Amino acid sequence: MGCCVVVGGAFGDEGKGKIISYIALKDNAKIAVRGGVGPNAGHTVVYNGNTIKLRMLPSAVVNARTRLLIGAGVLVDPVVFLKEVNETGSQSRAFVDFNCAIIEQKHIAKDNEGHLKEKIGTTGTGTGPANSDRVMRIGKIASQERLLEKYLEDVTTSVNDSLDRKEFVIVEGTQGTLLSLYFGDYPYVTSKDVSASGICSDVGIGPKRVDDVLVVFKAYLTRVGSGELQGELPPDETIKRGWQEFGSVTGRIRRAAPFNYPLAKRSVRLNSGTQIAITKLDTVFPETSGMRAFETLSQPSKDFILSVESELGIPVVYIGTGPDSEDIIDRRK
Ligand code: IMP
Ligand code: MG
């Protein structure tokens, strides 16, 4: 089973949370460890009639046996972290690396004014300014934060020890490859690299540790904030197609466009993807809603999946057909 790294293939909001929650339950992950930027992420998990919104904790939270860790590269907002720990009752299994950097009030204030707010259209959660202080080596780290005292752990060692024991570990990426500081359309990017290599670095594992890189795409593209979106639809067309979404952190309207093969190819390559997940197939092909077997899909929706496979050259292993963790076609079966 080993190590599966899950990353977003586009501009974030691909539905990683849903796919990760399914895998965590199905394959009974021992550890889920979060990489990525920080609480600028918003993951929604729907399971057993409950909707859980997460910005800090791994989406594997739905499996009560999975340990929930946050890697050293990630920025932690202690208030957001503690709220999620309490809401999900995960006090005994959620831990933060000693070296995570801390988001302070001044970072949030700075992220909500001037260049960052007006030009970049950030999420306003303080991540860019906190990373900036971290690089300047004037930031505060988790081991200095009293609120986190009970939740500190040497996450890097835990993850590597678990992999030595051949346990199943999910490494959870956030944002999407096309928002990467290095590979996106700078300056309209987030404040870190969020491709698979960056996510591995966040949690302290080397490239040879990874068995699968699962790249998650939605059946169409969305983007919040500024920056180019190739093939962007006018708002009325987005609504007509039922593709309108609102940001889970900021509540902003997400811009939408059809699935883009060249962008997806680039993303698979940047991540050395071995598997693909396509989410929200039922939003583009409503007749597929809730389906759990590939054979039952309509011909146009099957054709879409098959063309993704032939264009991108790796298998589409998971297909999301509804919001619940179990609304999924798992083609490993
Ligand atoms: P920041 O990461 O808050 O600095 O925002 C930089 C850009 O990345 C903005 O366009 C945000 O809307 C976008 N962004 C950051 N995190 C996410 C995410 O989790 N989903 C979607 N867009 C995001
Ligand atoms: Mg999101």
Give a verbal description of the structure.
By secondary structure, the protein is of the alpha/beta class. It is built from 11 helices and 16 strands. It has a 10-stranded mixed beta sheet, sandwiched between helices. A hairpin with a 2-residue loop joins strand 3 (43-47) and strand 4 (50-54). Helix 3 crosses helix 5 (127-135). The longest helix is centred in the C-terminal third of the chain and has 14 residues, at 299-312. The protein is globular, with a radius of gyration of 19 Å. The two termini are 15 Å apart. Bound molecules: inosinic acid (IMP) and magnesium ion. The site of magnesium ion has 6 residues, from loops.
Mean pLDDT: 97
Largest sheet: 10 strands, mixed
- In the predicted model, the low-confidence regions spanning at least 5 consecutive residues are none
Give the SSE order as H and E letters: EHEEEEEHEEHHHEHEHEEHEHEHHEE
Strand element count: 16
The proportion of residues in beta strands is 15-25%
The whole-angstrom Rg is 19 Å
What gross morphology would you assign?
Answer: globular
The helical percent reads 25-40%
Task: Note the gap between the termini.
Answer: 15 Å
User: Which ions and ligands are bound to the chains?
Assistant: inosinic acid, magnesium ion
* Distinct helical segment count: 11
Q: Which strand order spans the largest sheet, edge to edge or round the barrel?
A: 9-7-5-2-10-1-11-14-15-16
What structural class do helix, strand and pairing data support?
Answer: alpha/beta
Assembly level: single chain
Write the layout of secondary structure elements.
Layout lengths: L2 E6 L7 H11 L4 E4 L8 E5 L2 E5 L12 E4 L4 E2 L1 H11 L5 E4 L3 E2 L2 H7 L2 H7 L6 H9 L16 E2 L1 H10 L4 E4 L23 H8 L8 E7 L1 E4 L11 H6 L14 E4 L2 H11 L3 E5 L1 H4 L14 H14 L3 E5 L7 E3 L3
Parallel strand pairs: 1-10, 1-11, 2-5, 2-10, 5-7, 6-8, 7-9, 11-14, 14-15
Antiparallel strand pairs: 3-4, 12-13, 15-16
